[in-house]
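Subject: for your reference before the review

Hello V.,

The reviewers asked for a structural picture of the protein, and I figured it would be easier to keep everything in one thread rather than splitting it across files. Below is the amino acid sequence we used in the manuscript, unchanged from the supplementary table.
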Amino acid sequence: MITLSKHFIENWRARVGNEPSPELVQGIMQYGVIVLKPRVLMTPEGKPFKQLGIYWDPELQVIVKIDEFKGRAVSVLAPKNGRGK
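And here is what came back from the structure prediction:
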């Protein structure tokens, strides 16, 4: 099960306007559009770094970033983040 970081919860409240739940985020991951798969990549120097998973829910109009290596939702973007209308 996914846990929600404090940063994620605060930004969800501010940007989406309600209370997030781990079950909702799990549903976005399961049924949403995969924008970027999580994986471990290597730098040119041979050091590994983690790429977060990014998922889009067109119905909720949110994009979530998930650290699947730690099982934690870390960031959310919503229309309130955009510029203009």
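For the response letter, the relevant points are probably these. The chain has a mean pLDDT of 93. Helices lie at 6-15, 22-31.

Happy to draft the paragraph if you're swamped.

O.
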